[in-house]
């Protein structure tokens, strides 16, 4: 019997699960106080067929490293599965906050089309700071909070890598 | 047809799905193909498919796919007798068209003069208007400045549309509701127009209420035979970009189709059109229609027309370029209903942020009546430099509702991992009552934005968790077995022997 902890909603919800092998693709799974037999046949790296109480589910497994996106029908559940070892080494989840200095980063590589604000400008939450062009499309990056532009690290026309720090608001 | 006009080798001056699409027909016709590619596209599907491939420069399009001289010299060097420009990039550049002809290479498309007239919206409107084609009331010429614009807008009445004279594709286009907004919108439209087309001339049109965007496919050969192949309804748009197209349109009956078709043919004749073209029309709530623009190239959504008419438009383009004749209007038949959905590498949950990156897994739909025009494969890295459209999934069925259900089924079979796509968003559009009723206009996506964002079904979460836990369990077991096979102790001891073939089997010896 192996125990796992499945994290849902970016770690806001935790579901303990226990799995035990019964046969080549037959498992006994305990989840939410209920134990049942699951027939799981893995087709390939990206999909697994689940037979649960006679119902057949084609589940898609999109492994993105730490996070896995499981898709059943039209529903996608981004989740993380922790085993005992990873549970022990897990750092406490960082709380989402907009306190203090907030960096604005390029969500993907591209070119800065226009810088909309100057250093020291007062900005409101949701106001555009930088227009980034990527894949032929313009994307406006907005301020996550009310405050002042305290860092401005790019200029018009500059190419940036994904994740690059562009500006900060405090 | 004279022998010297025969096309034996085509250079496809494009990338992605359309380059693949054109090459497929070339292969069927026994025509050899030449691909051009940028740094980012060395591994691209169109390079894999072509008989020859020429590297034309760095990844940014303006240094490769838009570099007319590089593309032309690639054609000369490889001895291609024709260039197919696809859509976008150089496809509507009259100067490139002319340069091809001067170099003795057939440009698969209309004459440069047709592209010159249709390339500037104001001259296009003047020309077709003179041929009796209805146009949306608007300014005859680009407006000199904001003052002139304001005077004109006051005269025809708000709301008005500010449009780029050199424009197309919704760039540099702004709807202005009231006089107070004109100054700001005039500036924005000018700036966008300059950056998109290198030309900041604007003109004004009266804005229509609840407009639908319906376009007519036309085709013409050298003998002057000009036919229309029916309409495509393209009102499902996001930020002025079409994402779902269908034929027939729910608002077009046989009489309206005939009237629109005749107007489209007249517009094409007004510029001595040759080959495949599309006349875009705006249709108002009372089913009055007006000329919007003419696209002087193959259209992204051409498969919709192909599915309904049974024709291969790329084959017809090449045949016209060879000087052959096309079918007569009375030979055009239409059957059933076709719908196309554009699959984009973008994340609807994050404001449709483009999602370049590696495709780690791909399974595409099949079965009755489904066509997948794709430019990607599993393992391919979708580059950040180009349009994020990766595929078009098209469904054909005898009736509209069957076609809708078929396309929904096809999109559910579209399994792509590693990057985000809009397939579930597209399914939500096809499922929406307003779409299914056929009563929708270009405001559909904005009006229903919230309803179209897919939310997970809580009843299926348990299945997802079960699958995730079992998958992890299997993975852990696999690793444990691997460790056991290695003797369960320190790595290295005996490990070289456990590997099939063994390190020595490759005849290397120690380096």
State the gist of this model:
Chain A is 4% helix and 61% strand.
Question: What would you note in describing this structure?
Answer:
The complex is a heterodimer of chains A (170) and B (511). Chain A has one helix at residues 84-89, and strands spanning 2-8, 13-23, 26-31, 34-44, 47-52, 55-64, 67-72, 75-82, 102-105, 110-115, 122-123, 128-134, 137-142, 147-152, 159-160, 165-169. The model of chain A has no long low-confidence stretch (mean pLDDT 89). Chain A starts with a strand and ends with a strand. In chain A, a hairpin with a 2-residue loop joins strand 2 and strand 3 (26-31). Chain A is built from 1 helix and 16 strands. Chain A is elongated. The longest helix of chain A has 6 residues, at 84-89. Chain A is mostly beta strands and 170 residues long. Chain B is of the alpha+beta class and 511 residues long. Chain B has 3 domains: 3-108, Rossmann fold; 137-206, 2-Layer Sandwich (Dna Ligase, domain 1); 212-452, D-amino Acid Aminotransferase, Chain A, domain 1 (2-Layer Sandwich), CATH 3.30.470.20. Helix content of chain B is 35%, strand content 23%. Chain B contains 18 helices and 22 strands. Chain B is globular. The model of chain B is unreliable at 490-511 (pLDDT under 50). The chains are: A mainly beta (170), B alpha+beta (511). At the A-B interface, strand 1, strand 2, strand 3, strand 4 and strand 5 of A face strand 16 and helix 17 of B.
Instruction: Kindly report the CATH topology of the largest domain in chain A.
Output: Glycoprotein, Type 4 Pilin
Total strands of chain A: 16
Distance between the termini of chain B: 65 Å
Percent of residues in beta strands of chain A: over 45%
Relevant terms:
heterodimer, A: 170 residues, mainly beta, Glycoprotein, Type 4 Pilin, OB fold (Dihydrolipoamide Acetyltransferase, E2P), 2 domains, eight-stranded antiparallel barrel, four-stranded antiparallel sheet, 1 helix, elongated, B: 511 residues, alpha+beta, Rossmann fold, Dna Ligase, domain 1, D-amino Acid Aminotransferase, Chain A, domain 1, 3 domains, eight-stranded antiparallel sheet, five-stranded parallel sheet, 35% helix, globular
